[in-house]
Specification:
5-stranded antiparallel beta sheet, about 45% strand, mainly beta, elongated, Immunoglobulin-like
């Protein structure tokens, strides 16, 4: 006689525990939605003096969010002349969607080629790298989102390369 109430109690407790385990995920509060991201694509092309080994897109940043992580891309360049060249570089957007919202940093091997806020009127930086004849370097472009609304903003940009002969 005592086994029947104990069995009923045990079945009731197990059933209640099962309901709690199954129902808990439905009660969970969902996380705040992730804000939409901005996107930037940087392309590189050869000049008369500098060959870009893999021309085209060198950086595709599709998840740029204010204060979020940076995105980087690289390409290899070669001084294809018989002269030593001084190289400067900048990234110029093809539209103003991300102007003032992304900081660009450019480097060539161990040389810093400058840092600027993305914008159509970006001046040429003072920093430069010196490339000996036929020298190869890896160029790195980093895009760091700044504070501000990046949601749904997208643009393409080009890596501008300028050279001067070193005398």
């Amino acid at each position: 006689m005592t086994t029947r109430p104990r069995t009923s109690w045990l079945l009731g407790a197990l059933g209640g525990a099962l309901l709690v385990l199954v129902g808990l995920p439905a009660l969970r509060v969902s996380a705040a939605p992730t804000p939409p991201a901005g996107a930037l694509e940087v392309t590189a092309a050869s000049t008369g003096e500098i060959a870009v080994i893999d021309p085209g897109s060198m950086l595709r940043a599709t998840e740029l969010r204010a204060g979020g992580p940076a995105a980087s891309g690289t390409t290899t360049i070669v001084n294809q002349t018989a002269r030593t060249l001084r190289l400067t570089a900048r990234v110029t957007p093809l539209a103003d969607e991300l102007d003032g919202r992304v900081r660009i940093t450019i480097g060539a091997g161990d040389d810093a080629l400058g840092s600027h806020v993305l914008g159509s009127r970006t001046p040429w930086p003072a920093q430069a790298a010196v490339l000996r004849p036929l020298e190869r370097r890896v160029l790195r472009v980093t895009a760091r989102p700044l504070d501000g609304d990046l949601a749904g903003r997208e643009t393409q940009a080009r890596l501008d390369l300028r050279t001067e002969v070193v005398r």
